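Hi, here's the filled form for the chain we discussed.

Project: internal
Contact: R.S.
Residues: 413
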Amino acid sequence: MSAEIIHRLPSLSCLYVEDDTEVRKQVHLFLKDYFDTVHLAENGNEGLASFKANEPDLIITDIRMPGLSGIEMIKQIKQINKKARIIVTSAYDDSEFLIPLIESGVDRFVMKPLAVQALLDQIIQVAGLVLSERDEEEKNRTASDRLHSQIEWLMYKDNRIRFSDISSEVNAIYNLKRSLNEAAGFGAMISIVNMIRSFAKEKDGTYVVKKDLMELLYENNGYCLRLVEGLDRIESILKGKFNREPIGVRQLFEKLIEQTSGLVPFLAKKGRAVQISVPETTRKVEVDLPQILLAVEEMIINASKYGEGHDVDIYATTGSGYLSIHVRNTSPKEDRLKFPDHAERLVLEPFFRLRPTVEGYSEVEKLPIGLGLPIVNYIAQKHGGFFSIANALDHLRQPAVDCVVARLQLPVV
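And the returned structure, exactly as it came back:
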């Protein structure tokens, strides 16, 4: 795999930001052996300008620089492109910056003085992520073209293998690897352990490690434990039986308000307002109540992650023999709320993520690493219902604004 990635490095572009003239010159010569395009910058201001002008695939940067620091440059780059792949070169004395750098989404760290092989190893790892994302985007574009004429969702599901030259198993493995490498969790654990290995000092047969690094390791270990607990929960759903009992729609929504009572304050801290409208109807549904409440809660969490200054509205409609539970995410401040039409189908694929992991939600997420919506879909099907998610227009606002609506349909009795 490493040889394959090295062979493809010339197709990527690299930005190297370093204020030390001699170091910049030497590393530039090294990078030119692998990348056809290498952009250089002497400080954070030049680095940010080069990023905006050239949109490099990979960024390698120092931290301490005159003018705009490496940390501030990274923050501004991440505001422009959250998916930007960044390797930081840092000295031992920079350890106080490592936690905010990890929180900013830095992919890898290389300790100074730079060792060529250590730098190359990290470049290969990060470039592998960039190339995998590029391959996936190309595959999705091809799939979108092939599926353009397909209107019916069920037809798409029945014929998925026929329209894809990569099996669902391979897709799942790719998406799982991508999820694990993003943000907190196992991807961050790799970076933290690598930092501890670099910073640890051996003394009298023991290692001395900075307290803040160990605390970061403990914190991330808690996230990984919650992730494993989530996988256990998913396994129980897939293996367990669904005990369906009749319940009034109004009572179902009252239970939903009770279920999310602890979630609403958490989302409020994130600037997310959740509005649940209890429907005035005497209709009933036959459901496994804990599973349906879990499914709707996941829909709410998924809607709350993206956008800014918006509301998440939960309401119900009935018709054609079905109760439809809608979770509407309206975000007038977020231009990227809408997603490509083909993604309306892809988001139900296991481990698929349309956007990078959103930090800070691990304490409330019960269905982790890209499995939330696929499990919601599974729960809907086990109830003889349907789940879908689509772009829409919110006409309650004037002028109308873009929104995304997730819909869980259940047969009424």
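Let me know if anything looks off before we file it.
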